[in-house]
Amino acid sequence: MFENLKKDALKQIETANDLQQLEKVRVALLGKKGVITEQVKSIGKLPPQERPEAGKILNQLKNEVEEAIEKKKEELQKKESGKLSPKLWVDVTLPGARRRVGHRHPISKTLEEIETIFVSMGFKIVEGPEIEDSWHNFDALNTPEWHPARDEHDSFYINDLLLRTHTSPVQIRTMLSEQPPIAIISPGRVYRRDYDATHLPMFTQVEGLYVNEDVSVAHLKYVLERFAQQIFGKERQIRLRPSFFPFTEPSFEVDVSCGVCGGKGCQACGYTGWLEILGAGMVHPNVFKNVGYDPQKWTGFAFGMGVERITMLKYNIKDIRDFVRNDKRFLENF
After folding, report:
1. How would DSSP label each residue in 112-181?
2. pTM beyond 0.70
C-alpha cells in the first residue's frame, strides 16, 4: 500500500507544471489533512507489532516526498525565471525590492519531530478539548480540591470550566472510552498564569500514556531514553530523579546529559552535567480506579513535556518569549 502511495505521490510531483500546482500537490500530500499525514495518524489503528515498521516506512516516505517537492520547486523556479528574463528589461542600478520569505516556526518543527519519534514506537496521536471541566483536568488525575495546582491564581477559569492546564485530560478521556492495552501521545496547547523568560501563559505540551500488564519503570526509561537520543543525539543519556506528581507513583523528573560538555559540567548546564527535560512516572492506582480500570491487573506509565522547553534545549534558545514575538530575524535562524 505504501509503495503505491509513494509512486502516486512522486508522479503528482513530477507532473506539476508550475509552482502553484506544485503547492497544491504539497498540501494534498503533506498538509494537515494530506494523504501522507492521515496515514501517519492512522498508524495507531494497526496491530501493535506492525506499528514500528509502518512508522519507519512512512517517515522515510515523507522525507523522500519532501526532497522530491524541493527538487521540483527548484526546477520550476529556474524554468519560470528563464521564461521571464527575455521579456523584461531590468535597470540594475535601481535598488532591489526583496520579498522576505517566511520560515516554519521552530515549535512546529520540534512538535512534528516528537510526534514522528513516538509514532515510530507504536504510539498513536490523540487530541482533546482545550476547555475542560475540573473533574477531567484535576479530580480524575488524583488532584483533590485542596491541591495548589487548583488555585485560581494559577489557572484560567471560565465560570465552572477552565482552560486546561495540561493535556492529561486527553488521557482520562481515552481511558474512559477504550480498554487496555493503550499507547497514546496527546499534543496540544495548554494554559497557565505564567509569563517570564522560561514560562508563557499559553504553551505546547506533549503527554504520553502506556497501559498494559506488567509495565515497569524499566519500560518507561527505555522509551524516554530512545526519545532523548533521537531528538538530541545518539550519545545523550538520561537519568530519573525522584519527584512528586499527584497522578503518578513513583514520580520522576527526567534529565538529559548536557550536549555542550558531554555531561562533565559547564555553564550551560549549571556545572551539573544534566538538563531537565520532562516529568514522568508510573500511573497512580487512584487514576485507574477513577476510569474504571483494575489497578491489580493493569499498570502503566505517563510522561509530559513542554515542546518549548525541548526546542530551547535543542536550539540553545535563552528566552521562551522569542517564540511569540514574531521577529523575522529570529525565525530566519530555523
Report:
1. HHHHHHHHHTT-EE----SEEEHHHHTGGGT--TTSGGG-TTTS-EETTEEE-SSSHHHHHHHHHH--S-
2. no
